[in-house]
Amino acid sequence: MSKENGGKKPKEKPNSRKLAFRQEAVDALKALSDDEVTFAKAMVVAKLDCKKCGLHNTTHNPKSTNCRDNPFCLGRLGWMSIDKLITKEQENKEEAKKDQKRRDLNDQPAGLINAGNFCYVNSFLQVWFNVPEFRQLIYDFRPSPDFNPPPAPRMDVERAMMILQDIFYTLQTTPFPDTDKTSLLVKVLRLNSEQQDSQEFGTKLFNALERCLPEHPNGSDTEKRMRNLFTGATADRIVCQCGQRSENETPAISIQLNIEGYTTLLDALDANFREEKLDDFTCSECNEKGNATKQADYIKLPPVLIIQLNRYKYTAKGRQKLKTPLAYPREIPAKAFQRVDQSNPPPAAMYDLFAVTIHEGSNADCGHYYDLIKSPYNSKWYRYNDETVEALAKPPGTEKPTSAKTDKSKKKDKEKWPVDQKACYGLFYRRRDAVQPLPLPTMPPEELTIDTKNQIEELFEGLTKKKIEKSEKRLYDLERRSNKLQTTFNKLETHVEKYQNPNDIAFLPTSLITDILNQEYEVAKGEKKKKKKEKTESEETKKTTTTEEEDIAAAIALSEADQREKASSSEPSTSAAADTADEIEEDEERSSNETPINQPSAADEMLEAEELMETDTTPTKEIDILAIAMEESALPTVETPELKKRTRQQNGDVKYVYTTRSPRKSASAPNTTTPSASPQKQPVSTRVAALLSSHEIPICGHGKMSIDPILFGDVKAVARAPAISMLREYDYRVKLVYDNGEKVYPPPQKDREIFIFTAADICMECVEEMRQEGQFNDQLEDDERMVRKILKEEKTRCTVKCPERRPEGHVYVAKFALNNFRKSALANRENKLAQSHPLKGTLHIDSVTTQKEDSEWPSVASLKRSRTKQRKSVSEVPEKLQKLDEEGMQEAAEQTPEEDDESSVPDVSPSDQQNPTRPVDTFDPEKAKTTESVEFNSELRCAHGSINFNQFRHSVSPDEWNRLKSYFDDCFEVKCTEQVCEECRQMEVDAQHGNENMRQMVRDMRKRINDTLKNIEARSEKKTQFDEDIKYGICSVFLDKLKKLTNRQALPPTICQECLLCQHQLPFKGFLNDDNHKESHVVGMTEEEWITFIDEIRKLEEAGADEHVVFTEPQVIHIENGQIRDMCERCYEQHIKFTEEQKYMFENENIYVKLVNPNDEEDVAKANGKSRRGRAKNMYAIKMSSSNKLLELKVQLYDKTHQLPNDQLLHRTVGGELFDVSNNQKTLFDLRIAPNNNDNPLILIAQQFSPSASTNEETGDRAPERGFVDTALAH
């Protein structure tokens, strides 16, 4: 909670809608006379005369929210969620039927399931699966018995190639829309779960295969074919004007293309391959400098050309993603890459786009990869997004190559760019060959694929039928439960044309009805929600023994868990449908526990299950809305319908038979055994009850039902008998909690009604008070206008502005009382009502969870009625509760029933059967909270009982005073002829004279010590240390306050010395130095100066203090031989350390860095020079904070110097400490870098880079990224 509001709850804004409904009722009541306020009129005001709501069931524009102004409306309280769930399940059923069809292998590609952060792996596989040459060389690989797998961490190349072959074969042949084979490749490559770069992964995998395939007996040919597929050759040429020419040829797997500042692919390629002038290059032939040019060019183009787009840059915020849109063509000429050397031209003059890798996300370090790929066989474009593969309506890219220089329709608005051009990360082009379309790859031999083929077919044949069966069964269960709930709510609904008398209407909290529907929805959804109802660990450890039923239940649960674990371990993982198969097996296991037709009835089993559930340690099985729960749950308001029973599955078809429940056999019948209820079986209503919350209905001050909750829409009017049945069904119980702290628990016997408010309980006293409230507010409004008029006439009524004599009989009223008149009147009325409302409280409708947490609840069985067990009748009446007489005395006649295992049936009188059970009126008037009365105009009473001198007063006429005091029982009446309190007047005069005298004494004291202050200020610190007369120390803060003392101040500063003393009450701060000039320190003074200050301050304190004040002497700090005596060394060292650290703690200050050329001796000499011009040259000022890391400083230096952060040579001084890469994650505070260091800046060494280095040069194997260090790709 924030400190700003002082720990108080923020004031809730009043609900304007609720206030409008209540004001409407008040307006209707205040227009009535006393005789017209009847119970029938109260029913009308409470809107209990409304008809059935029909706003939600219309086909044209139905209302989307509940009608709060109709207490009978139960629409839109949560029922729509259950309807949506049924609709969704119907769609799932239709979807399951569609899934039974095999995938069209020619028109619908299969996807790859992403089992973690492996979208980059799926992206690579899906692109290269659509390269027929690459797929064919994978199919052509054969395992060899002569191959010995290398030890870890090297990659097992044979296993990796066979997994790739299995993945490609599955993608080509599976009838499912997706497969989960990626996990096999992830495991063999030992990839971690971190997100990685898709292009980097492909480069590392190809490099690893090129290293490892030659070591396999059958791998050399595969490695050669793979290398020729995507590896080309580039040459870096340096040509001098003298004719000297040098050329460096290197292999090229891909083009690393910088796109910053370019909007088309051709422009970026032109910048990459253009000639570059080398100003610092010296020709070895002519020894001339600056006459050479450099150009990169392809000398051999591969069949598959990979272009990696550099979408990262360094900014002040670190490594950021570059969101530059790039227009790329669907076809591009080969001369765009091979520009100079045409000695080895490619077989085809054009390259066609066949794949685009998209990086989705604005962060450079994370995101999601997916691909847009053109099928090599039907020439259609598809979006491959992990397991989802969809056809594209429009191919990506542009039809022809474009350039920003020639394209007149250049896009300026980012929103006009397609998504694929704004987020493209990799482009793949295939050389246009003469043979179109490309032939299908030849499959591997059957002995290598037979296991995968059989596994897929077996899974597909059985799984699709099981999915349909599961969907149909779940839909049946949902519809059945929905019908039961619908019937219950239909019986709950009532209206003016339906009920006969007010006692037929009951009130339930709207939140309770919504809660029941929401939790029914959650249980129907099958979500496993845990309520905080488990016992603490200490209570669990106390239990050392278990009952026989608990031991059996625990054994059953353990056995089922083992069976599920074995079943899951034996499941195949060849397809995404494996997960669905697990669900089917669990569903079959649940279905096997269904109650057969010849089993006992659901009501009997429900009772036995509830008895077992009373033991908290009984293990229960998490089940959903399937047949077990459905057969055992029946709301009491629903008649038993015909049951739809499912028979054993035959050939994948689901058959149902219709039957009715058979009656349970008598327990006394011979040769019959009653099966014990399994503790795993729970009725749906019991599981819903465990999730429900408690709810409340306010009780008015007369112990009855106020109409306010009805007007506000907080309660709903329903039929009483179905409402009580529903509360019993969900194990709700009721208690009453009064505001005086007293709790009443109505008797919990099952055959007595649950206490609930009805329309007959509407409080007529509250209705009358509401009418009076309306009349009171009208009168208060008129009188408040009168008060505002009095305040406006301040010039003629105020005693200060108009001191003239007032007419006889006029009364003075405090201005403060007039300003708060309305507030005081309302507060006084509320106090009166509170005193007349002794029975105000709350009706709590407690859920099962709340009942367990409340130790005062009686420990009784569930409120659900048993429909089969016979109860013994008892002649004795159990506990009878009688209402008391008017004096408030209570008599309780108690009779103890017979001790029996079966519950007893009380003898209920006919009158008790007609009326609900009422709580006992046990209120003690003496326990009622007393409220303080509001006294009007009390501000004018002083401490002496007379008229206050300091308050502003307004005069009012006798009529005005009578109107004002009519709202209050106590008023302080002050006649205008009465005089103010003389004692208060004299105290005010004395206080004014005392302050003026104190100011004069302070001015005199300031003059006397002025010379002493000048002497102390003129004394240098060096003289203080060697002056033997310096014997005392005083706080510098005190001296600063004395210097700033003005003539208007009435009180001088005190000599506290606290800021110089540590927790041990010893001095721990020293004299003034360069490090502590901004904080308090010790100032030395002579004994005479010390005595002067002590005497002067003491005189002023004695003059301004009361006679009972006890003065304390200030702490004395002694100085001997220029040293502070009794210095606390430990605290002094800590203070020095803290002061030193404070230098390096700053916020948004300048850090100065000077760029120095080490080859220029003059530049190095000026780096440490004292001249301002020498220091300011090549100086950078960067705003930083001490909490910033060194890497952030280097990133900002990168923007200014274009030196990469990891390449910067940053020193503390010239030739001093080097801040290398190992310090990048340290903060500036950790490195002790001070701000505003323009006199001693950091030194950044200017570096010279060789112009012959190529930005896209790839020599040998690339160094592994950090995420691939521990994988098989790095070895």
Question: What would your notes on this structure say?
Answer:
The protein has 1275 residues and is an alpha+beta fold. The chain folds into six domains: 14-81 and 481-526 and 692-762, no CATH class; 111-224 and 444-470, no CATH class; 228-404 and 418-434, Alpha-Beta Complex (Cathepsin B, Chain A), CATH 3.90.70.10; 768-839 and 933-984, no CATH class; 991-1105 and 1112-1127, no CATH class; 1144-1164 and 1173-1274, Phosphatidylinositol 3-kinase Catalytic Subunit, Chain A, domain 1 (Ubiquitin-like (UB roll)). 36% of the residues lie in helices and 15% in strands. It is built from 37 helices and 40 strands. The strands form twelve sheets. Strands 5, 8, 11, 12, 13, 14, 15 and 16 form an eight-stranded mixed β-sheet that branches. Strands 37-36-40-38-39 form a five-stranded mixed β-sheet, with helices on both faces. A four-stranded antiparallel β-sheet has the order 4-3-7-6, with no helix packed on it. The longest helix has 47 residues, at 446-492. It is flat, with a radius of gyration of 46 Å. The protein starts with 15 loop residues before the first helix and ends in a 30-residue tail after the last strand. The model is unreliable at 1-9, 527-553, 561-680, 860-929 and 1249-1265 (pLDDT under 50).
